[in-house]
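Predict structure. Chain length: 156.
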Amino acid sequence: MNRTDLLLRMLDTTFDKESWYAPFKSAIEGLTAEQACWKPDGEATKTIWENVNHLIYYKERLTAKLEGRERTNSLDGNETFYLTKQLNEDKEWRAVVERVETAHRGLREALSKTTGEILQEDSLEGKLLDIMLHDAYHTGQIIQIRKMQGSWPSER
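Prediction complete.
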């Protein structure tokens, strides 16, 4: 297995391929907008919707970098949680879910077309690994929020 294939496998494992931990897509599966907007008491906790916004931003940014495109929408870390307006409407939530899926597919496609030499440039391989760990970290937060709200399936 070459490095790109290994990175693609790990990218898929954190997003939608079941491994020994739940992937991101399973963590948001079946959520309503109301559940995605729910927030436990305390200022430090973000909603599931906010976490998904955050992940979208970084996937889209890295995809642009891999494709050699300039990003005009530069946000600081905290602003990324508010990338899309959080509304208690299922149609709007489904659009956010579709956007994160599109962002993942775009990143995956860009990575599959990237050579090993390009991955070495500007620490792109390290940035890809960071994205995967970042996704796994926030997936764990999303699952914890779902457990707190009682929407995480008991059989998982």
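Summary: The mean pLDDT is 92.
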